[in-house]
């Protein structure tokens, strides 16, 4: 067994009760789920705490939470009115995420798909910085970490789709409440065979992983091992860095759905863990 634990995305369970999700996690060998706004939408603070207890009473956790990433949730927006509204939304959901037990919030650095070369890196960094000035102290007060996720390339050059963008973020923004989330599928689409370079840049600040596979041409969200992601390299680097958090398998099982069997969920977790073994037994 790997030195980290596995969760899966809460987006696979929209419409299911906490008890149903709990039972799937227990059967599959998952340590919990990555929370998602639709699971908590409309719940009171007391109801969110009850939701949390369903998992904790079973020895499970919601240790990471995917913060909102709709078009309106752009914390790097060049329009301050939109950006400030997005910051308020993210701050609200950080509070809800912390209430359900999460310690890490996955944050898309942008929700637009424009080319940084045309729009200007300084503009992106400037507006992101204004948002982080508000969000990072709020996260720190919650005992929470914001993990900026690497993005798909779009038509090319999208903000935070390549390692150099994260190098700039590291230079500009040094804060204990700021980390990164590596999305393996996004990295493959953006970088091809050079995808491990993103992991190298993020390494010391990695607070979360999104494990997903694809053919390199689109974000297919295939279960690990069913695409072209270089899993041996990824898991070797994670092991060598001492990463010991959770890894979110951000896919459904590679099986007939949408109502996946308990056996399919367990097979996905077992198959993912097997991908790590050559790297953890050296």
Overview of the structural elements:
- The chain has one domain (5-280): Alpha-Beta Barrel (TIM Barrel), CATH 3.20.20.150.
- It is built from eleven helices and eight strands.
- The chain has 282 residues and is an alpha/beta fold.
- Strand 1, helix 1 and strand 2 form a beta-alpha-beta unit.
- The longest helix has 22 residues, at 121-142.
- Helix 1 packs across helix 11 and helix 10 crosses helix 11.
- An eight-stranded parallel beta barrel has the order 1-2-3-4-5-6-7-8, surrounded by six helices.
- 46% of the residues are buried.
- The two termini are 14 Å apart.
What key phrases describe this protein's structure?
single chain; alpha/beta; eight-stranded parallel barrel; 282 residues; 8 strands
Unreliable spans: none
For the largest sheet, list the strands in their spatial order.
1-2-3-4-5-6-7-8
Please tell me the total number of domains. 1
Secondary-structure element sequence? EHEHHEHEHHEHEHHEHEH
How many distinct helices?
11
- The CATH topology label is TIM Barrel
Number of beta strands: 8
Question: Mean pLDDT across all residues, rounded?
Answer: 96
Q: Provide the CATH superfamily.
A: Divalent-metal-dependent TIM barrel enzymes
Tell me the β content.
5-15%
Second CATH tier, the architecture: Alpha-Beta Barrel
- CATH class label: Alpha Beta
Q: Main β-sheet: number of strands, strand sense, barrel status?
A: 8 strands, parallel, barrel
How large, in whole angstroms, is the Cα Rg? Answer: 18 Å
**Which structural class matches the secondary elements?**
alpha/beta
Helix content: 40-55%
Shape: globular
Report the span from N to C terminus. 14 Å
């Amino acid at each position: 067994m790997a030195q980290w634990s596995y969760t899966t995305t809460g987006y696979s369970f929209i419409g299911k009760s906490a008890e149903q999700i709990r039972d799937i996690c227990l059967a599959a060998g998952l340590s919990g789920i990555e929370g998602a706004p639709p699971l908590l939408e409309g719940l009171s603070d007391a109801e969110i705490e009850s939701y949390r207890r369903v998992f904790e009473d079973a020895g499970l956790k919601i240790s990471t939470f995917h913060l909102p990433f709709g078009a309106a949730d752009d914390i790097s927006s060049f329009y301050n009115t939109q950006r400030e509204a997005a910051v308020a939304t993210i701050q609200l959901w950080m509070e809800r995420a912390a209430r359900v037990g999460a310690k890490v919030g996955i944050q898309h650095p942008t929700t637009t798909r424009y080319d940084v070369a045309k729009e200007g890196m300084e503009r992106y960094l400037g507006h992101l910085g204004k948002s982080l000035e508000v969000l990072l102290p709020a996260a720190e007060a919650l005992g929470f970490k914001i993990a900026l996720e690497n993005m798909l390339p779009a038509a090319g050059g999208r903000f935070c789709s390549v390692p150099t963008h994260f190098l700039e973020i590291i230079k500009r923004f040094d804060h204990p409440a700021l980390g990164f989330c590596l999305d393996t599928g996004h990295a493959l689409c953006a970088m091809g065979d050079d995808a491990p370079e993103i992991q190298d840049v993020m390494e010391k600040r990695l607070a979360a992983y999104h494990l997903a596979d694809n053919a390199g041409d689109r974000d297919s969200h295939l279960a690990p091992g069913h695409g072209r992601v270089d899993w041996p390299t990824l898991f070797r680097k994670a092991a060598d860095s001492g990463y010991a958090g959770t890894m979110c398998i951000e896919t459904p099982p590679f099986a007939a759905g949408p109502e996946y069997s308990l056996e399919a969920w367990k097979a996905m977790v077992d198959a993912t863990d097997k991908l790590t073994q050559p790297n953890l037994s050296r």
